[in-house]
Amino acid sequence: MALTPAAGGCGESPASSVPIQSPRPVNTEVEWDGFDPQAYVRHNYADLRSDDRELLRRTRDFFAGAKLADARCVDVGSGANLYPALTLLPFAYTIDLCEWSTSNVRWLRTQVDGYDELWDPYWQVCVEHPAYAALPDPRRRLAQVGRVCRTSVFDLPQHTWDAGTMFFVACSISADRAEAEHAVARFLRALRPGSPFAVAVMLGSAGYRVGPRFFPAVALQRAEVVAGIAAGAYDVTVHEERPRPSLRDGYLSMLLATGRTRG
């Protein structure tokens, strides 16, 4: 079930995942409720890496220059990553953190109420810009404006939010390239015309492990990602990070795209 725009809040959806059975699973074949957010955070975000720092810095500067105020914001596929939502914090009237996995939804609710100290270095990158430094208490602010929503990227309502982020989602929700393209399109259509956005993907990803579980991915290439975003956006700027050392085996680089939606 999609979010309910008329209610101005977050919708709830029944669980629909089943165990992985096919060698190239689609999204509905993945056991997302088995995702371990604590293991994911420990591996990916316990230390602020230079590649995440650069993506965070660029996203911060983009939103700071977008002239947003009291915006209805969304972070799609939040998973166990808080820093995209932090980049929206000074400009948000609300931030809907949309996630499908029930384990990730539980984790997000604990973070919205008062996020862990490991996210403090990420906020310190944000406050290097005056627009963020003017916000004295980011934890309190997130607790005020953050709303965790259990919903799929494929069920997002159209033209609902004023600004949005979607980090490492389209590349990592199935092994089906068409689903990755559809996820990007649904995200862009969920924003109102002219809305600023930031999208990040892993390029060339062969899948990833979270604890003992393996999750699928799509080996996206730069040209196809940029073309898919440009189909629904304008003023698109692209930056690619090739981390050394890499976060894990099985991917080439990280790509960040910012721009505004066509509507």
TrEMBL record:
Pfam families: NNMT_PNMT_TEMT (PF01234)
Alphabetized GO MF terms: methyltransferase activity
PROSITE patterns: SAM_MT_NNMT_PNMT_TEMT
Top-level lineage group: Bacteria
Ranges where the record places region Disordered: 1-25
Segments crossing the lipid bilayer: none
Matches recorded under NCBIfam families: SCO2525_fam
Protein name: Methyltransferase
Organism whose genome encodes this protein: Micromonospora sonchi
Taxonomic lineage: Bacteria, Bacillati, Actinomycetota, Actinomycetes, Micromonosporales
